[in-house]
Write a structure and sequence with these properties.
Blueprint (H helix, E strand, L loop, with lengths): L6 E4 L4 H16 L4 E6 H6 L11 E5 L13 H23 L3 E5 L5 H7 L3 E6 L3 H11 L11 E2 L7 E2 L13 H9 L10 E4 L7 H8 L4 E3 L26 H9 L6 E5 L8 H13 L3 E5 L12 H4 L4 E4 L4 H5 L4 E6 L3 H10 L3 E3 L6 H11 L3 E3 L10 H14 L1 H19 L4 H15 L3
Parallel strand pairs: 1-2, 1-4, 2-3, 4-5, 5-8, 8-9, 10-11, 10-13, 11-12, 13-14, 14-15
Antiparallel strand pairs: 6-7
Helix pairs in contact: 9-14, 12-15
Amino acid sequence: MEERQDVIAVPFPYQGHLNPMFHFCSCLSARGLKVTLVLTHGVAKSMQSTLSQASIHTVEFISDGIEGVGDPPRTFQEYHARLRAAFSDGVGAVIEKQKAKVLVHDALMPWLLEVGRADGLGVATFFTQPASVCAVYYHMLHGHIQSHTHDSKLRLPSLPELEFPDLPSFSYFAGIVEEVTEFNISQAANMPKADCFLINTFHSLEEKVVAWMVNKWAVKCVGPLVPIFHKTLHDEKQDRIDLFELDGESCIQWLDNREPKSVVYVSFGSVVVLTEEQMEHIAWGLAQSNKFFIWIVRESEEIKLPKDFKLKTSKMGLIMKWCPQIEVLSHKAIACFVTHCGWNSILEALCLGVPMVGMPHTTDQPTNAKLIEDVWKVGVRVKVNEEGLSTRQEIEGCIKQVTGERAEEFTRNVIKWKELAKEATSEGGSSYENIKDFVAFAKSYSE
């Protein structure tokens, strides 16, 4: 007979969603809960290493309705319908097999709340972006932002004043903007419904908006879910899920030969696709900054690099397909991080005390960039011209600000947030206590 599990955890099967949920599960496991992590067969196929049982108790694999299932979906609606059906069936089967008490599911799949409730489980929704973005999604979901225009300023409860370029953006998705917008803002749908709504942030980082949420719903901040603050939970090295092949050794050796705070690290995450023109501006902006650099360029993007760029910058730069980002950001040689403003990247930079140059593109990234520049004051946001392009001159200027004239200011601010993040995850801290409360909830939950 299968051993009964306390928690079944279901992340959305994309790189940026896997590790926050995995690290949360690892925290629960270290506190004595039996946790089953549910991954898709597609994720299993791409994973670069297996997960140790010290980090997670059990892993189950299900279909995502797309990978290896006939023809690929022709429309976003078909993709969504197949994803929903496959996850509902797959998670339902895991619940039946594991006899768990509590389901933790990614907010991008809000329908899983009903799957868990139908089987008598307690249900927690897990949001992988900042609380501020969740609040914006909530207001979008309820039609509070419909009248907002390009020129007006938006004032929402507990949030900083926002302008149109600061709002989550879905224009990147061209012909399916409406569908993708609805898909993303639905992440806030379960905030009033879930037994617990977990957010990968920490109280002091987003104090006002968190206070507004906690006053209304069962919201708990459980972040930052970055392994540097949780690695003491296990004796062995913390695992992580990587869907891209890593080349960590060569870049760390390269960094070891550089002076402290002399290298710009550049990465736009696992999803963003840039135009050839934008790649060219980034390339020569980096070159003109006269800084050493490591630039992560995924294999599919390499063809867009200026043809002579690698040769001309071979003494200054290292171009790689993927790297262990935490190890790179924690290296003394790193001066700043040029980032797409994905939430995991921002949290890692904050926790490691690295100032940022934000180049947001889509979804939550513009709002995150607003927080970086105007709220936390840990970096600058690259401006775009009328064509929506960030020029080489603008990129060069931003790098020089963060590594030169304003370096001391940004470093001082980011170190402050680093210490507050450490405090939140240490014994007695806000996130530490929230995870402890969740463990008590999971242990006590009865059908």
